[in-house]
Amino acid sequence: GTMNNASLRILHVNKNEEELNQEQQMNKQFLNDYLKDVEHSFHTLRHIKLETAVECFTQSRDIDMIAMVAKNLNFLQRVLFRPAVEKISYHTHIPFLVLHE
After folding, report:
1. Which positions ≥6 away from 90 have C-beta within 8 Å?
2. Does a structural domain hold residue 2?
3. Rounded distance between C-alpha atoms, residue 88 and residue 28, angstroms
4. 3, part of any domain
5. Can you tell me the distance from the alpha carbon of 59 to that of 3, in angstroms, rounded to the nearest whole number?
6. What is the pTM of this model?
7. Residue 22 structural domain
């Protein structure tokens, strides 16, 4: 992050009002500690579909690359392969790195 003057924006998408569970809190704390020397911030979007959340988040910030941890193929397909009617603008100009959990 520091070599390229990069900052990291960590987004959690929640379809409801639930708070982070214990495991998620521990993961957040781990990331916070691990990234202590890198500019980073945590963000949560609630009551929104994952696909819409990612698109809104990338449009509202100066995002140069998206990295996502995918638990399964269905999760990934929802983001990458929406119907042609629903164009996703970030697909055309932002690199997308997908990591399998």
Report:
1. 54, 55, 58, 59, 63, 66, 96
2. no
3. 28
4. no
5. 25
6. 0.74
7. 8-100
pLDDT tens across the length of the chain (101 residues): 555 778 899 999 888 878 899 999 999 999 999 999 999 999 999 888 877 888 888 888 888 888 887 776 676 676 666 655 455 555 557 887 877 76
List, as one string, the DSSP characters of 8-43: EEEEEEESSSPPP-HHHHHHHHHHHHHTTTS-EEEE
With b for 16 or more beta-carbon neighbours within 10 A and e for fewer, the 19-38 pattern comes to: eeeeeeeeeeeeeeeeeeee
- Residue 44 domain-assigned (yes or no): yes
Whether residue 1 lies inside any domain: the answer is no
**Residue type present at position 97:** L
